[in-house]
Amino acid sequence: MKFILGEKLGMTQIFDKNGNVVPVTLVHASPNVVAQIKTKDRDGYAAVQVGRGSAKRVSKSVAGHLKDLGAVRTLREYRDNDSKLERGALINVSIFAAGEKVKVTGISKSKGFQGVVKRHGFHGAPATHGTKHAHREPGSIGATWPQRVIKGMRMAGRMGGATISVRNIEVAMVDAEKEIIALKGAVPGRPGTVLAIQTN
What are the annotated GO cellular component locations (predicted)? Predict the structure, then answer.
């Protein structure tokens, strides 16, 4: 499995060989370092822990964990049963190629406290015919029986800021010299969001 951590830069467009405009998201993926190889015998599951960036201050436990690698800003891990990597190995964008399909995971944009129309797509009440002050209200949240609000009832609340994974994103271009990978279409998060890119 291929895996790398990168930082979302923003969206732009490129042209394919037929001259068609392709919207892409640019991700800056500086070399990642393998921080730990987890095994089923020792840790209960097989995984690879990867770090990126540099940090000025880290906790003592993290500093001890990374003592010979230098402090990293972000640590993530992915499940892999037959990894050939070793601790301290570097992973760069050249492992990916244009045309590959990948899964992208990141934290979505935060929207703050939103109503049911924006948050859940409710249609709202009719605009006229007696409607007063209730155009975007949720309506009924339960019947007389069972005399309680059922768990999971969709209501207003905080929206966004959740971990989102999008599958089957196509790699449009890889620039190993500039450490940039271009992904076709949109991906979760705002510019600066840390994204995990891995093969499906």
Answer: cytosolic large ribosomal subunit
Query: d(Cα 58, Cα 163) in Å, to the nearest integer?
Result: 24
Question: Rounded to an integer, what distance in angstroms lies between the CA atom of residue 52 and that of residue 79?
Answer: 18
- Whole-angstrom Cα distance, residue 58 to residue 43? 23
Q: Could you tell me the pTM of the whole model?
A: 0.90
Asked whether 25 and 182 are in contact (CB, 8 A), the reply is yes
Q: How far apart are the first and last CA of the chain?
A: 8
pLDDT at position 200 over 90: no
CA–centroid distance for 10 within its chain:
14
Please name which of 54, 9, 52 lies closest in space to residue 28, comparing C-alpha atoms: 9
- Total tally of structural domains belonging to the chain: 1
In angstroms, the CA 188 to CA 107 distance is: 6
Which tokens hold the place of 147?
A: 């005399």
3 state SS of 129: coil
Which tens digit of pLDDT belongs to each residue from 146-180? 999 999 999 999 999 999 999 999 999 999 999 99
CB neighbour list of residue 131: distance below 8 Å, 6 or more residues apart: 125
Give CA–CA dist 155/115, Å, rounded: 7
Domain range for residue 17?
3-199
| Alpha helices (H) in the chain, listed in sequence order | 40-43, 60-65, 116-120
